[in-house]
Amino acid sequence: MRFAHLLLIAAVFALGACSETRYAAHLAKQLSLPTDTPESKGTFKVGTPYKIKGRRYYPQESYSYSETGIASWYGPNFHGKQTANGEIFDKYELTAAHKTLQMPSLVRVTNLDNGKSIILRINDRGPYAHNRLIDVSQRGAELLGFKNNGTARVRVDVLPEESKKIAQAARMGMDTRGTEIALNQSRVAAPVRYAKTSPSPRPVAPVPAHAPARPQPIIDDITFDTAAIAAPSPAPIQQAIHQPASTQPSSKKVFVQAGAFSQENNALALARQLETIGPSRVYLARVNDRPFYRVRLGPYDNPEQADRALTSVISAGKSEAKIVTEH
What we know:
- Helix 1 (about 1-15) runs antiparallel to helix 2 (about 20-30).
- The radius of gyration is 21 Å and the shape is globular.
- It has helices spanning about 1-15, 20-30, 140-145, 160-170, 180-185, 235-240, 265-275, 305-315; strands at about 50, 55, 65-75, 95, 105-110, 115-125, 135, 150-160, 200-205, 255-260, 280-285, 290-300, 320-325.
- The chain is of the alpha+beta class and about 325 residues long.
- It has eight helices and 13 strands.
- The model is unreliable at about 15-40, about 190-200 and about 205-250 (pLDDT under 50).
């Protein structure tokens, strides 16, 4: 059953090359994968807007998602329970939970503290504590090197072509479990980054006393393009997963981003409003040659300090605030 499943996945990913099918057959012999059961087979799902703890989330199908933030992990308390797309959660598999991305989708998660990078498959919703960016499985946290710490600063990049293909497979009723194992073993290349923003955002002028008091945030703050994929090269899965990404680990700190604006005065007004919570500054960035102004508090030495500031910012009415890391 599992052999047939891998061949079906290979058929979706193959571009007419019989060598890829032979490679999938090789993987079927090498990997120990769970037995197919009706309970564990997931479906394609995006979902409608929903509200958790007073905050509304808007799921969407996206193949250009790239974001930095704080990752956490989950496992023992959810092992054996149903995920948001209908699978049975296994803490030993390479899966993850995200609040808005389509399920299933494939993402590369890079630990910015140590450079380790693996591919995970999104099959669940969350996390909702402290505005975390992604919740990875226990096994994912082990391989990314932050299980003992509990959290890590990460970058999450959707793999666009691979995610489109497993979305198609799931819509056809196929079981997409194990796809992430094959991609890690084939050593899909780390994302190629094309920065559209200034490499080192600079703070703008001090807050003027006459600044307007009602800023209007912009919705889209995505600043990076998608990944480039190299030719597959069979290799032991542990070697592939533990291979550091091409990006060097970052030593930069953690910020709370309270908003992003197209008008400088609106950003300056928000920065003034948040001064009682902590050091707030406005940073200029360019997206597609247009200036944008980001209001950030910090930097903070660790996620715990940022969590406390984030809670205060959200309590002040800025429900879209989030933790971000520089890279």
